[in-house]
């Protein structure tokens, strides 16, 4: 049984006979996309973990792309009807869109078991353990025999619009140069499965010989890394023309470490 943002009003906190529960089927997986409190946030979805696997994409409360202004959302690519509906209940309706995308991307939507979304964002819970990470959506049941804990809360990030799946990589950069400068560093990943756009991995003071770590949620599963493009820029014109490079860049895949 797959719960697509099961309803919060009249169901949350009720006995298991009333609401969805893991005892309802051999395997219950749940996608939580609108779990902010109903009052005052109008969250339509339930927040507690109630299945064998509970996925909280983007933290489970506010989905990327749902904060767009009403006009752009109503006159969306999918037409006025879908746009109007999304404006009213965009977070809630993301659950079925993630599910339908998961059918097309069997290797997408890896959920990382974590204490909270904050810990996941900060750099905990990476990479997947040796038994792997479950895939949110249609292929979650591939993980059926591997569940050890009573409730498993899983976190991941998604894109703002179709196609929704993102693949998580840990990028570690050691800078080289003569003096520290202010600016930002972007990295693009190239691999056997495709290439990513530029992702910002550092912003602020760039210190030579210092190592910086960041996570990239890439829009493509790059497969085996073949090349990394390193670009940096300072935020204003600097008459000393500072030079900065990368001594080393390490890319770690969340899927297999």
UniProtKB/TrEMBL annotation:
PROSITE patterns: PLAT
Signal peptide: none
Keywords of this entry: Cell projection, Cytoplasmic vesicle, Disulfide bond, Hydrolase, Lipid degradation, Lipid metabolism, Secreted
A GO molecular-function descriptor: lipoprotein lipase activity
Every PLAT domain range: 167-257
Catalytic activity: 1,2-dioctanoyl-3-O-beta-D-galactosyl-sn-glycerol + H2O = octanoyl-3-(beta-D-galactosyl)-sn-glycerol + octanoate + H(+); 1-beta-D-galactosyl-2,3-didodecanoyl-sn-glycerol + H2O = 1-beta-D-galactosyl-dodecanoyl-sn-glycerol + dodecanoate + H(+); a 1,2-diacyl-3-O-(beta-D-galactosyl)-sn-glycerol + 2 H2O = 3-beta-D-galactosyl-sn-glycerol + 2 a fatty acid + 2 H(+); 1,2,3-tripropanoylglycerol + H2O = dipropanoylglycerol + propanoate + H(+)
Keyword Disulfide bond tagged: yes
SMART domains: LH2 (SM00308)
Keyword check for tRNA-binding: no
Subcellular location: Cell projection, Neuron projection; Secreted; Zymogen granule membrane
Membrane topology: Peripheral membrane protein
EC number: 3.1.1.26
Entry's Gene Ontology cellular component terms: extracellular space; neuron projection; zymogen granule membrane
Biological process, per Gene Ontology: lipid catabolic process
Protein name: Pancreatic lipase-related protein 2
This protein's encoding gene: Pnliprp2_1
């Amino acid at each position: 049984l797959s719960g697509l943002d099961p309803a919060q009003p009249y169901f949350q906190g009720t006995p298991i006979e009333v609401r969805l529960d893991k005892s309802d089927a051999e395997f219950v997986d749940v996608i939580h996309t609108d779990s902010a409190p109903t009052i005052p946030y109008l969250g339509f979805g339930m927040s507690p973990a109630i299945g064998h696997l509970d996925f909280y994409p983007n933290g489970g409360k506010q989905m990327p792309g749902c904060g767009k202004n009403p006009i752009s959302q109503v006159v969306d690519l999918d037409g006025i009807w879908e746009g109007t509906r999304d404006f009213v209940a965009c977070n809630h309706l993301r659950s079925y869109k993630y599910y339908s995308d998961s059918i097309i991307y069997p290797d997408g939507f890896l959920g990382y078991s974590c204490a909270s979304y904050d810990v996941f964002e900060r750099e905990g819970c990476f990479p997947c353990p040796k038994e792997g990470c479950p895939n949110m959506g249609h292929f979650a049941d591939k993980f059926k025999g591997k569940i050890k804990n009573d409730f498993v809360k899983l976190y991941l990030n998604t894109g703002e619009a179709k196609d929704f799946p993102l693949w998580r990589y840990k990028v570690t950069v050691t800078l080289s140069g003569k003096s520290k400068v202010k600016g930002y560093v972007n990295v693009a990943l190239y691999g056997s499965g495709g290439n990513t756009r530029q992702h910002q991995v550092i912003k602020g003071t760039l210190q030579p010989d210092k190592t910086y770590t960041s996570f990239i949620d890439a829009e493509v599963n790059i497969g085996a890394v073949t090349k990394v493009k390193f670009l940096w820029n300072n935020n204003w014109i600097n008459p000393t023309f500072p030079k900065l490079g990368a001594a080393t860049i390490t890319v770690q895949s969340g899927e297999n470490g």
